[in-house]
Amino acid sequence: MRKKVLIFIHKSLGELDWIAPFIKSEEAETLDFFVYLNKMGSSYEDKKDILDKYGLDKENVTLLNNKNYSKKLYKLIDRRLIKLKKKVDFFKPLAKYFRLKNVKELGYEEDYDFIFRECQLRYAFELSCFLRANRKAKVVAFPHAVSIPKRNAGFIVYGHPPRVKIDLWLENCTLAYQWMPDVFYATGAPGLSSFYDLEGLFNPSSCNVLVNTRNEFDLHGCTKEAVLERFDQILSYCERKGLTAHIKHHPRDHELYLYRDIQKKYSCAVEYTGTLTNISMEFRACLSFFSTSGLFLTARKVPVFDITPYVTLNEFKSKPSSVNSLHYGDKQGRLTNDLMEIGVQERLVDLDDVFIAEVLTSLSKKQFDSLIKHFPANSNNLIYNKLEELSN
Q1: How far apart are CA 279 and CA 195, in angstroms?
Q2: Can you tell me the distance from the alpha carbon of 106 to that of 71, in angstroms, rounded to the nearest whole number?
Q3: Pick from 243, 241, 18, 219: which is nearest to 116 by CA?
Q4: Residue extents of the structural domains in the chain
């Protein structure tokens, strides 16, 4: 009998970026997927367009219509009870009652074998109802991006991770913090490991460089002013050296005009609006403000430099945002992160390194070797086998 898998995408297409390659894989052809897009797409048609863009218009993939799964009154009541039941135990059974009532009146009881949810464990009324209606389903937490999660103080509730049912916790990397060691499993990222056997995109003679920008600053050890100044310097350098800067902006940046005002000054600047999962042009290097998106270039053997203008370690520690950051001090007292420490990205000290073929070629090999060491290959196969194991 074919297994039924609910994929609950909460509010970020990054979640779909991560899981879509597995859904499309040969390994998953024996599974039936039901996709629920919670906070994206204003209509069923919009949601269907999203799935189509990800290549999920397959016979074994069904898009669930959100209108069938929630009554606004029950959802409103549930949100109020969530706050009250934290203070008064009396409201806990009342919350369960309304979720069960919503479940019985609407179409939640599909009898899923697995329910996939993103690993930040954000609250969603509809997800609570799916879980309430499918008590026997195995719950699988999966990453919403290709990253190396760390222990996040904001995720802790009364000194412990949230008390939720998780039967399998998938992670990208062997270095990820293990919230639940008994169910933790490093599978690598499906969209990343599928690149390992593809032809590389690195060419030290290419005139193309990819520039990744970012949308948050304090949390990542830099300031907006310093980042924009560095961005200007990078484009000025590319202009002088005859390089074409293909600029990939962060998808949730609401102040893109700040970058674009600088781009207008340079004929070498070309905005890249596609995804890094289907890029095909050759690059000399990738110049990236702190971001794990550069890993998709590393997987194609393109050397990646971190160009972030980091503040001093003392200045960083003085900010409240440092508690939940992915950054820390290195042996030289500089701000660093796991991407640089494990060797999948290189701190850029001298821009002229971008023109030294020996440096680029050496970094290409070193970074790729580190990537496949820490981010497992054959992710789709690892995930499928683990689901089979859970079923038995």
Answers
A1: 11
A2: 8
A3: 18
A4: 3-70+106-195+377-391, 208-374
Domains 3-70+106-195+377-391 and 208-374 share a fold: yes
Rounded to an integer, the average pLDDT of 216-230 is: 93
Taking domain 208-374, whether its CATH number is 1.10.10 is answered by no
- 180-194 as b/e: b if 16+ CB within 10 A: eeebbebbbbbbbbb
The domain made up of 3-70+106-195+377-391 is a member of CATH 3.40.50.720: no
Largest CA distance in the chain: 69
Task: List the structure tokens of 280.
Answer: 């095909």
> What would the pLDDT profile of 282-319 be if each residue is shown by its tens digit?
999 999 999 999 999 999 999 999 999 999 999 998 88
φ and ψ at 387, to 5 degrees? -65, -40
Interior/surface letters 25-37, b for 16+ CB within 10 angstroms, e for the rest = bebbeebebbbbb
In whole angstroms, what is the distance from residue 211 CA to residue 226 CA?
Answer: 16
Q: Which two tokens stand for residue 137?
A: 């389903």
